[in-house]
Amino acid sequence: MFWATVVAAVISFWWRSDKIKHDALAHVLRYCKNQNLQLLDQTLVLRGVWPVRDQNGSLIFRRRYGFEFTSTGEVRYQGRVVLYGALLQSMDLEAYIIPDDEDSIF
């Protein structure tokens, strides 16, 4: 019974984490589209998971993902997105070149 509970908890955590990663990817894709940026490789990389307390004192997980994007199609830049539970907390991007309209990659 103990091992069945452990396996169920691991599967549940993995399943929830996968959904949260897809939500984070949707946030990043929407932001990149609005800023005329291209998300490279169409993927996020998990950089860390930490237990934290939310405003109500409940234990949730803080997840930090990394990604790469480009503004010109020539140079890769790094970005980071942080979620508290399933809520977007912050998104940080390296400074990047803003192309002229005729140099746009889209």
Question: Could you give the topology of this structure?
Answer:
Layout (H helix, E strand, L loop, with lengths): L1 H33 L3 E16 L5 E12 L6 E8 L2 E7 L13
Antiparallel strand pairs: 1-2, 2-3, 3-4
Describe the fold and architecture.
The protein is of the alpha+beta class and 106 residues long. The chain has one domain (2-103). The protein is built from 1 helix and 4 strands. The chain has one helix at 2-34; strands at residues 38-53, 59-70, 77-84, 87-93. A 4-stranded antiparallel beta sheet has the order 1-2-3-4, covered by helices on one side. Strand 3 and strand 4 form a beta hairpin. The termini are far apart. The mean pLDDT is 89.
Q: What's the N-to-C terminus distance? A: 55 Å
| Form type | elongated
Largest sheet: 4 strands, antiparallel
Q: What are the secondary-structure elements, in order, as H or E?
A: HEEEE
Counted up, domains total 1
Instruction: Work out the oligomeric state of the chains in this entry.
Output: single chain
Low-confidence stretches: none
Strand order of the largest sheet: 1-2-3-4
Proportion of strand residues = 35-45%
Alpha carbon gyration radius: 17 Å
Whole-number average pLDDT?
89
The helix-and-strand class reads alpha+beta
The count of helical stretches stands at 1
Number of strands: 4
Helix content: 25-40%
Question: What key phrases describe this protein's structure?
Answer:
single chain, about 110 residues, alpha+beta, four-stranded antiparallel beta sheet, 1 helix, elongated
